[in-house]
Amino acid sequence: MTELELKYGCNPNQKPARIFMESGQLPIRVLNGKPGYINFMDAFNSWQLVRELKAATGLPAAASFKHVSPAGAAVGAPLSEVERKIYFAEGMDLSPIACAYVKARGADRLCSYGDWAALSDVCDASTARYLALEVSDGVIAPGYTDEALSILKTKRKGGYNVVQMDPDYVPRAVEHKDVFGITFEQGRNDFAITPALLEHIVTENRDLPEQAKRDLVLSLITLKYTQSNSVCYAKDGQAIGVGAGQQSRIHCTRLAGVKADNWLLRQHPKALALQFVEDIRRPDRDNAIDVYLSDEWEDILAEGVWQNTFRTRPEPLTHQEKKDWIARQTRVSVGSDAFFPFGDNVERARKSGVSYIAQPGGSIRDDHVIDTCNKYGIVMAFTGMRLFHH
Questions:
Q1: In contact, 94 and 64? CB cutoff 8 Å
Q2: Active site residues
Q3: What is the pTM of this model?
């Protein structure tokens, strides 16, 4: 198949639409559903991310994509009991690739609503069963077991999008894109991100553990396929906050930091103790938790809306309790797709427990950024490599 006609492009008025190869065959097979233009944009970007993440770490990798940026990405490390609870995976038999997707999806469950899933390894029944529970548009993987495909074909009344990717496909070295009728050409960004990129440590603290190296590599590979400007917080083999598409670096750092804080707050004993009404939908449960953790919760309580969601009136999580809980966070890694121009990025990252930073360096204020890291004992590596993605 050299081309595939699509219903429309980004919007219904954008017709005709198709994906095609100027020469050779498309490296995909649509096994179920009818993926659209944005679906394929997410599929191909997310596939590159998980393929590179597995190559760099040797572990199964997964990503959860929305609007051509990752809401989350992770490698296949086992889940703790707390993680199983906050990701709604209690009692499930999870394979390594299933663990990777559960963690990727769990990084930001609100943003992952209606996601496109990407798997570095063959999709097994364990992963398919979890996918079947979530609101998702589709999945791309190098293959599917018969049982997994059978499960996925029952999703969305039989219309769930399932795409099989040729793992041996190698794209051309030069890529093109049309904007306003004008064709842009550039070399494809095939730069390999490995732990060797982290050897240029510029801070007084030079202690960079193996786990931190893995998390920094994960964050940088995630950023390589995130709309710029972008910053990614990572911990324990998963992204826990992605700030994408912001015009200033500090807004990226703040946005990603707030998401990382929410990920941590979901593990607070009060959040874990929330009692939901029977048969509540998973998205409604996610929304309720998000509101509970927000500053709007007292207003919601005053309106009595909690009665539609919770079995008992939740005990509020105070501002001071949130601050104290987040202050316990440590060993978080942060990657940035371009240099930190000011030390304010380090100050904000520190508030979310950041201990390790990787960024290209090259700002005229590098000395101030380094001094800010030294002030808090943060380890920072200059990679020398910008990772803009547009």
A1: no
A2: 66-67, 229, 390
A3: 0.96
